[in-house]
Each structure stands twice: as structure tokens, then as C-alpha cells.
Amino acid sequence: MKYNRLLLTLALAVILSLLIIALPATPALAQSVTLNPTSGTANTAVTVTGSGFTAYVGQVVYILFNYNYITSASVPPGGTFTASFTVPATYTTAMTVPVTVQHTTSTYDATKQITAASFIVAARQIVISPSSGYVGSTVTVSGSGFNASSSVTIYFDNTSVGTTTTNTAGSFSGATFTVPESYGGTHTVKGSDASGSSPTVNFTTLQNITITPASGAVGDTITINGTGFAAGSTITFYFDTISVTATAATNTVGSFTNNTFAIPSTSRGSHTIKAQDASGNYATATFTVAHKITITPASGVSGTTVTVTGSGFSANKSITVKYNTVAVTTTPAAVSTDANGSFTASFTVPAGLAGTYSVEVTDGTYSASANFVSTTDATISQTTSQASPGYVGMELTITGSGFKPGAIVTITYTTEPVTLATFTADANGTFSAKVTIPPSAGGNHTITVTDGYTTKEFAFVMELNAPPPPPLLLPFVGEKAKSRTYFDWEDVDDPSRPVTYTLQIASDADFTTMVLDKTGLTTSAYTLTEEKLKSTSAEAPYYWRLRAVDAASNESQWTTPRSFYVGVSFPQWVIYFLFGLVALLFGVIGFWLGRRSAYSYLMGGTR
């Protein structure tokens, strides 16, 4: 018991001694240093706060970052100080850096660190949002730990997709890039400045297809483009769950473009189109089937048979077809849609004026329409051209359809119209008429057909071939002719009939002194009647020539001139007078001879 008291006394003595020794050191134990923030990237601003330091004249604390002097501060009364510094830009990798404080009244001495704290340096890093998406989608990038106020390039795999600039703290936010064309799967994104690159983050490219148009009818062709599939893979297309015949192949970045297929027969409403590669990657899009009709042909004359095809209507419904708002008789007579809402029918275009008319189809719930252009048609039995011209008297047949039923149709010819025919179109607006081309000049002309509402024109080319010159018959070369000379020549044949002739007579071979110029002779002979040629000698003859002119006004060359002359001639009364005088003379002579004979007889008898 005695020893226990002794030991207790000794223990109390030791504790009291230690307390007495520890009291002077309390200010040193109370010194502390804190950092705010305690971590960050290069260029991060850091505040250093110290407390429990002794304040007296000349008291200074030196602050070191990773044992290198970075700043200093005076200790104010109360022993608490504040200082700040910026993490040097050279610190770009992750590490823990000691921040030490030397508390001394003398000059800076790196060996006399009194207290310390730790600062965690963060490396370059980026954050992306979202981390998956389609080619062409937008990704937002934020980053830190880069050089202050510097350019940072964003890379998708190894391809630059954009740049941004950091602030004074080496950070940036709100930068964006568009996902480039890339195969489906994982890709890397990183940021790089002049000093290095951030660790990569992953971005997943997803499959996507676009279809154009997104709605339509059965039989319409759609175009499909796709991205994000496996590279160099075969793409199979599905309409709902049925594979279509079209396929595609992706390129080296998993894309395909401008692949088409026609919408198969199906019901109205929404349907799914799917594209799937050989690896099982796929994407879908929605196509809406609507009701629609097509007509074949879309234009024609009255009486044309038009086929109407419809799809996307209600299933198993009766169909009504109207032309120009009036229901028409169809083939088959009763038209109904099938289980997919499709049908086919035909009708005959009613008679009527040319124009655009609506073909309407309804199943009682859904209606669709298409325009039919009713046309006017006219044909000519024979066309002409420069190589194959027509001629006067040519007979042509002109037929027409689609004209106004019961209208008066007029056919005219040339620019100064000559009416060739006038008649009435039948109840269907059709007609057929024969016309004969009248005399007209060679060259281009127009045949016009009109009912007052519709006009059709045909080009007509009149021949320009001159007829041959007519062979001359009478008078012969150098022949003596009568003053009322008879001229004769051979007929000339030409397609453009009738052929007329021009006769010229001159007193010289050059036909500078014209005696007669007779045109429009319709026969191949002519006798001077009112005209009378003066007598001439064989040494000073007349000359005559001819040319032929066809009904298209084409003129032949002149014939080679022939000479003839006209002998002396007397008026008829002179001839009659001379005949009478001669007769009288013969009478007198006869009378005288008779009397003499009688006298001789009498005298002889007396003897």
C-alpha cells in the first residue's frame, strides 16, 4: 500500500512536469495552414490562410509550392494571415503537391519550413454530353486543366471536329461539335492544347436512317439514307416484317445513300421501315400510307379508255368514279377495294370540249382525285415537206376528235384564208373531211382547222419545181405566115394543174421590142384574132417564144426563139373587088368575042 502511494505520487509529479514543459510550446502547436480550394488544375487560383503565428515587427511567412517559392505574406496582429497564388501552367498531370510555409524573422530559408498543407493538381480533362448519338447530332464539350487563354482542338478519333479557347483558369465550357460520319460503335473524343492532350472519353455512334418522303401511297418510291452501321456491310431493308428486294452496301464509315424501293401493296396507316446490317445493327423509321389514285393515260381525246388504280382506301369498300363531277360507267360495273384498300377500274372519257377535268374516286370515307387533260386531235392524211412537197389539186383527208360536239368546223388554207371546207362535228366532236389544195404560190402555207373553240394547224409545203418549157410546133423556123398567124405547141404536164402558157412575139431576137405578150393561155394553140402582124420580109422576121406556168406559179424557162415572117396581104374587100373586076373583065371579053363571031357569021351568010 505504501508503495502504491509512492508510485501514484511519482506519476502525478511526472504529469505536472510535462504540463509545465508543454505550456511554453502551445503557440507553436496552434499554428495551422489551410488551402482553398485544395485541388484544381493548372492556373487554378489558391488562397492560403495561416493562423496561430506570432505577430511582431518584421514577422514574414514565405509560401512554397512543391518546395519552390511562390509568394509571401506579412503576419498581422492576431497571428492570422492570408495570401494567394495561381497553380503554375506547367502542372498538367495529376499529382499531390506540398504547400509549405516558412515562419521566420530572418530572410527566406527553404530549409526552415514550419508547417505544410497538400494541394491536389488535376490533369487535363473533358466531359461530353451526350455520350452517344447519331451522325450529324451535336455534342457539347467542357474541359479543364488546359493552358490558360489557349486554343484547344477537339478530336473525334483522330479527326479534328472543332476548336475552342480556354479562359484564364485553363477551362472552357459550351463548346460543340457535330458527330462526323462514322461507323456504329465506340469512338474516342479528346481535347488538345499546345502542351498536351486530355485523356479520351468514349462516344457511341448509333444507327440511323432517314426516308424521303415520309408518307405516300402504294407504289411510291422512297429514298433511304443510313449512317452508323457496320463498315463494308450489306444492308437489308424491311417493310414492316417483310424483306423487300432492294439491298445496299455501307462504305468504310458505315453509311449508305440514295437507296430506293417502291412501297408494296399494303393497308393505309403507319408502317415501319427497317434497315439492318449483317452484324444485326438496325434502325427504323415510320412511313405513313395514304390513299391515292393514278390514271393511265392522263390525257387524250374523247372516247379514250382511262384506267384508274387506287390504293390506301378503306378495305372492302364500294368505289364510285366521277369524271367532271358526273359518275361514269366503269369496267367492271361494280368496283370494290380489296383487303389492302386497293382497286383497278376503267372508264371511257365522255364527249366534250378539250380542257382539264377532274377524275374523282371515293369509298364513302376517303376521296382522291387526279386531272385528265381532254385534248383535241386532228390528223392529215399526208404531210408535206421541203423534201416531199405537195401540189395544186392534191386531195387530203383531215380527221378530228375532241372538238365541240355539233360545232361548225371550218378548214382554211394559206395566210390569206381560202375556205376549203365547212361542216358540222358529230355528237362526239369528231369529223372527217376531204379537201383539195387550190392554186397557190410555191413555198410554205398553213391549213387551219377550227370550231371556234379549238384550233389546229398543219404545215403545207407547195412544190417549187418549174414545169419544162413547151416544145414549139408552128410556125416553123423561117416560115412565111399569115398576118393572123396560127401558133401551135405541145402540151406540158405538171403535178400542179392546170398549166397555162405565156406567148411572146418580138421584132428582134432579144425580145427588147415586144409586139405581143399574151399570158394565161389555157390551151396549147393560139391564133391571132384581134392582133394583126404587119408584113415583113424574110430578112427582117418576127420572133416568137413560149413558157409554161403551173398552178403553183412556177415558171418554166423560155423556149428557144423561132423566126417567121408575114407576106403581103390585102383586106378582104380588096380581094373581093379584084375578083369582081376580073370576072367583069372576063365578061366583057366574052361579050366582045361573042358579038364579033356573030357579026362574022352574018356577013358571011350574006355573001
Give a structural overview:
This protein is mainly beta and 607 residues long. It has 7 domains: 30-121, Immunoglobulin-like (Sandwich); 125-205, Immunoglobulin-like; 208-289, Macroglobulin (MG2) domain (Immunoglobulin-like, Sandwich), CATH 2.60.40; 292-374, Sandwich (Immunoglobulin-like); 377-462, Immunoglobulin-like, CATH 2.60.40; 472-566, Immunoglobulins (Immunoglobulin-like), CATH 2.60.40; 577-607. It is 10% helix and 47% strand. The chain contains 3 helices and 49 strands. Strands 10, 12, 13, 15, 16 and 17 form a 6-stranded mixed β-sheet that branches. Strands 27, 29, 30, 31, 33 and 34 form a 6-stranded mixed β-sheet that branches. The N and C termini lie far apart (262 Å). Mean pLDDT is 87; it is low at 16-29.
Gyration radius from CA atoms, angstroms = 62 Å
Approximate helicity band: under 10%
Q: Tell me what portion of residues adopts beta-strand conformation.
A: over 45%
CA-based shape: elongated
Instruction: Provide mean pLDDT, rounded.
Output: 87
Main β sheet profile: 6 strands, mixed
* Second rung of CATH, namely the architecture of the largest domain: Sandwich
Annotated CATH topology of the largest domain: Immunoglobulin-like
